[in-house]
């Protein structure tokens, strides 16, 4: 296939990469035998400068025609998550972590050394007790940056410096988002041992790099996620 340049959401251009499309389809749970059929239909419509958003829409249409409407809607999960409310997203994350073996409590006040902290989710698993900070972004193309990672680290440090026994029992913090992370956020979090879960990235202890949020959504169940996003246009 001849080299074709595509236009990204931010206006920059890059060479069309078939492997990225294949990974996106696989991460959405599309059956392996359907992927070549979808690729064939998509790639014959490509032209120089085509927007990645247009490719995305074409993929959605092909999945709807060649797989199912449910799979097509699930393929739009990243867009759908940007449109749900913050509280809905927090509860969804609690459910997702539960499917991954965590015992979760939503919306807990935790004493810190300086202030009390409203905790989106407290998640326990084995000897882990995690302060889970959930950040919801309305723009699915926005990377979650260094500031959110620093804030999460600062909050868990204040909690663990509290004299309260329950606060001292926290073993770590997790930052969960509905977007990708910037490289600065990833580097800082790795240095300060803040675990991350976002689009195409996971550093949860025991699950590093093998699961992103999109795969955990699939574990939760496509039908359930699609029902949550049923008002998506």
The quaternary organization reads as single chain
Number of strands: 8
What level of helicity do the residues show?
40-55%
Question: What's the alpha carbon Rg, rounded to whole Å?
Answer: 19 Å
SSE string, helix = H, strand = E?
EEHHHHHHEEEHHEHEEHH
| Distance between the first and last residues' Cα | 33 Å
Task: Give the SSE map.
Blueprint: E1 5-7, E2 13-15, H1 18-27, H2 35-43, H3 52-66, H4 69-75, H5 77-83, H6 86-99, E3 103-111, E4 116-125, E5 128-135, H7 146-160, H8 165-168, E6 172-177, H9 183-192, E7 194-198, E8 201-202, H10 213-220, H11 222-228
Parallel strand pairs: 5-6, 6-7
Antiparallel strand pairs: 1-2, 3-4, 4-5, 7-8
Q: What would a concise description of this structure say?
A:
Helix content is 45%, strand content 20%. The protein is of the alpha/beta class.
Describe the fold and architecture.
This protein has 233 residues and is α/β, with parallel strands linked by helices. The chain folds into 2 domains: 5-75; 84-228, Trna Endonuclease, Chain: A, domain 1 (3-Layer(aba) Sandwich). It is 45% helix and 20% strand. The protein is built from 11 helices and 8 strands. The chain has a 6-stranded mixed beta sheet with strand order 3-4-5-6-7-8, sandwiched between helices. α3 packs antiparallel against α4 (69-75) and α4 packs across α11. It is elongated and about 65 Å long. The model has no long low-confidence stretch (mean pLDDT 92).
